[in-house]
């Protein structure tokens, strides 16, 4: 049900949200990914996958050639092997992308140029995907990237998603119960809710970590939990902070 995720992202962009993030030295002792995984498994689901996405603005460049130069420079800075990758064009965007693997973690490094007033705004996105077993390695890689970006006076925005699976098909009421049990575990307050015959999605705020999205400049939100009853067997659960950025 990726359309639900996309709907939320569009809504947040339209609302003019602001992402607040702690300085690197003030991070919580336990990463959000570890807390989300514990909450998912504590609700009775089996942890399946973890995704961490790091995004930052790189400033403005004059053209496609400069986008590629900037991408290669940052790939070198982040110790990402650069093959003979070429700049591709998707609609009016220019995209430079490299896939890599490190300690069982699948990574995607992407620099995108968005045209604006005769130039291009450049954005860097790093995606790290792995299993619960690879969580420690995701943390190590994330910290290394985060430090490199912070050292360059860039402010990375980090989103984290954990997916799990219940072995049985759950009714909407049962899905709601699982989601609310996770809210209780994370001491979260419900803010919004969406649901249909097979999907339940609840967003809210938890003091478990400090980064959050400010809706309309005032309401704090940093947690979204969604369930989706599969057509074949089982029920998926996805937990994200500050919102879910993966398919669910």
UniProtKB/TrEMBL annotation:
InterPro entries, A to Z: DUF1779, YwmB-like_sf
Pfam family, one: DUF1779
SUPFAM superfamilies membership: YwmB-like (SSF143842)
The protein's name: YwmB family TATA-box binding protein
Native source species: Brevibacillus thermoruber
């Amino acid at each position: 049900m990726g359309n639900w995720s996309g709907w939320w992202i569009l809504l947040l962009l339209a609302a003019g949200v602001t992402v607040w993030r702690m300085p690197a030295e003030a991070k919580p002792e336990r990463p959000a990914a570890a807390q989300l995984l514990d909450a998912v498994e504590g609700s009775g689901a089996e942890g399946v996958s973890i995704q961490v996405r790091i995004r930052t603005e790189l400033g403005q460049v004059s053209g496609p050639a400069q986008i590629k130069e900037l991408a290669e420079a940052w790939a070198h800075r982040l110790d990402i092997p650069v093959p003979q990758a070429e700049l591709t064009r998707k609609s009016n965007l220019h995209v430079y992308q490299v896939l890599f693997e490190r300690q069982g973690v699948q990574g995607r490094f992407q620099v995108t140029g968005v045209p604006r007033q005769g130039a291009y705004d450049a954005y860097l996105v790093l995606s790290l995907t792995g299993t619960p077993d690879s969580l420690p390695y995701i943390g190590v890689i994330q910290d290394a990237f985060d430090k490199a970006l912070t050292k360059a006076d860039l402010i990375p925005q980090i989103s984290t998603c954990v997916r799990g699976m219940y072995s049985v098909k759950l009714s909407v009421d049962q899905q709601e119960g699982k989601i609310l049990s996770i809210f209780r575990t994370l001491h979260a307050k419900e803010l919004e809710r969406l649901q249909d015959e097979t999907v339940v999605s609840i967003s809210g705020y938890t003091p478990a970590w400090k980064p959050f999205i400010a809706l309309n400049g005032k309401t704090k939100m940093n947690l979204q939990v969604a369930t989706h009853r599969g057509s074949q067997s089982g029920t998926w659960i996805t937990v994200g902070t500050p919102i879910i950025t993966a398919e669910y």
